[in-house]
Amino acid sequence: MEDHDSLSYQLAQWYDANHRQMPWRKTKDAYTIWLSEIILQQTQVIQGTPYFEKFINEIPTLKNLAESSEDKVLKLWQGLGYYSRARNLLQTAKHIYFELNGVFPGNYNDLLKLKGVGEYTAAAIASIAYDEPVAVVDGNVIRVISRLFKINEPANTSKGIKIIKELANQVLDKNHPATHNQAMMELGSLVCRPQNPNCTNCPLEAFCLSRKDNTMLSYPLKSKKTVSKKLFFNFVVPLLANDKTLITKRTANAIWKNMYTFPLYEMEGESNENDFFQVIKNDFGDFELFDILVLKHILSHRVIAATFYLVALKNETHHNVSESVSTDRQDSINPTDFKNKYKVTSEKNNTFEVEIKSLTEFYSLPRLITKYIESKEVKNYFM
Description:
Blueprint: H1 4-18, H2 30-40, H3 45-58, H4 62-66, H5 70-77, H6 84-99, H7 108-111, H8 119-130, H9 139-149, H10 158-171, H11 177-190, H12 209-212, E1 229-240, E2 244-249, E3 260-261, E4 264-267, H13 273-284, E5 287-299, E6 302-313, H14 335-341, E7 351-355, H15 359-362, H16 367-374, H17 379-382
Parallel strand pairs: 1-6
Antiparallel strand pairs: 1-2, 1-4, 2-3, 2-7, 5-6
């Protein structure tokens, strides 16, 4: 590898001429940088930027965030996914404001003590806000370093990531860590892409070992992928009188905690819809079926097979009912047996009536729920 000072110089020159303008790059404010880094942990810049701008306009300071309700924070986060990030953001803001006298930790080691702040985020805040010489290692940097040095350890193993972090710190420009770290991440995003890397326009082409033998696409190495777990979710979507429906606030320490969904039955395995009709009758009384819609929703390491049952409950007045469902089938499974067979879990204590028109405006909904509401099959009931 060529001299590190030369590498840093070429990188900084490229960054100065080519970096994208982003709202969080205009400040050294730790709160602003922290918020942007949390949003971008699992979100691409193009998607995360409007969320950042809306969030910072609504909650511009650490004090404002510490005094905000969880419902407000989750509503602003709606659609970004990985909602534990938003809950940790709020808890950490309260901790800093009420327990640390509103003073944001000013170094890498103290930042690591904050809830929801790992090594990458701590390094980003420390280097960008406080110019501490510590290398940021995100997915983009992992790819750049792996290709530069031809790292022959899988990047998703502890040994591989340790090697990458050591090398990232070796090439770090200790005098200008903020510029260097942002340049490394920008290079990975714009030039050293996962597919079709633009090597001829890369400022580090002369330093890159994988470029010399054209093996760029072989790096970073990865060990065998984790198999995605399939989840089966059945939602009951009741339409009530006066344009109301039922929603449930999820309180269990699981997916979508403290967000709102239609009454949800989480199951292990695909079920027979006629058998599930018995469950609906048992829990909600007699009903008429409007629509059944199946949606697939992909999360990290999880695939949700979701079935939505849009129903009118007994004694509710609705028009254009497409099908009347009989729940007196002799061959249908008993609701208790059904729940035992499929290991059904559901939350009932936090279910309540709301106006349909208030759903998307006031309640933090998982993307799967908004995707259902906006689907052409049922949107006339909700929009």
